Amino acid sequence: MNRFTVAGPMEARVEAALPDGPGWWFEPKWDGFRCLAFRDGGEVRLQAKSGKPLDRYFPEIVAALAGLPVRRFVLDGELLVAANGRFSFEALQMRLHPSEARIRRLAHDAPAGLKLFDMLRAPDGADLRTRAFTTRRRALEAFVRALPGPSRLSLTQGTDRRVEAQVWLDDPEVEGVIAKLKDGPYLEGERAMIKVKRRRTADCVVGGFRYGKDSPLVGSLLLGLYNADGRLDHVGFTSGLPAADKPELTRRLESMRGEGFTGDRPGGSSRWSTERSAEWVPLTPTLVVEVSFDHVTGGRFRHGTRLIRYRPDKSPSQCRIEQIE
Predict the structure, then answer these.
(1) For the chain, which domains are there?
(2) Cα–Cα distance between 109 and 89 in angstroms, integer?
(3) Which positions ≥6 away from 25 have C-beta within 8 Å?
(4) pLDDT tens digits for 161-182?
């Protein structure tokens, strides 16, 4: 009997707004690790979006799948770990550790869950990938209803009402909203879905800048927010600055050299550190910018932010960490 394989999960392309019309189904986009879960008899596998195995990092999920009375299925979902009552990407990343003892301890202290949103293989062995999403969803709902509870597996919510999905874009627990065609098949590795990200903005102080690689012009602005002690913490960066603006902006920044960050500074020990982390120019904290961002992890923007505008009307002292907490 051939092993059931999946080249990769169906993915989404980013759009600015949710699609309209009766042919769409909407689900929250969870901020976790995408995971394909396989069971075939006694074999259980967890596969990351990259194709790499996740089994050893989430033993409690493997055990939950292995303990089900259903002995054959392939599920698509998102691995999530809660910390302080909310899903935490940082807690999830702590699982990717070489020590099996540490992984086992974390699995016991903060067990993961698998939020399910698609079924590729039914318990009767049927390959559902060519079937319409509505058919796959019904099969998944029946699968979850039959689970012996409580379970580490749960069904993601969904709706065909766009107005209801729009509300999820204001929910800090989710990354955005996924839109799927109701009659669409499961297209492995293709961007056949639509993702609309939840837009958040913050007013930040520019506490420093970096020059572009092999360039005398600014490459990125280093962003700061004041903490509860009144110190300016480094929280991320923004790049993608218009080329036409860089000469004048560089001259302006170079005239603002000063103290820079007084709390957490660029170049500290973190997973964001690179060999260029220490190569930055500190500035007097007077320039304020508004940026948009997707996520915050460990008090920093997880990805680079997008510059929206400069805020000469905003006092630097108003740029506080509470904006992103």
Answers:
(1) 11-197 (3.30.470.30), 200-323 (2.40.50.140)
(2) 16
(3) 133, 134, 137, 158, 159, 160, 179, 180, 181, 182
(4) 999 999 998 887 788 999 999 9
Distance CA 178, CA 202 (A): 24
Q: For residue 11, what are its two tokens?
A: 């993915």
* Among 29, 115, 180, 197, the one annotated catalytic: 29
Query: What is the DSSP track for 225-285?
Result: EE-TTS-EEEEEEEE---GGGHHHHHHHHHTTBS---SSS-TTSSSTT--TTTT--EEB-T
pLDDT in tens, 235-281: 999 998 999 999 999 999 999 999 999 999 997 433 333 444 458 99
Burial of 284-322, coded b for 16+ CB within 10 Å and e otherwise, reads ebebbbbbebbbbbebbbbebbebeeebeebebeebbbe
| Catalytic residue flag (residue 115) | no
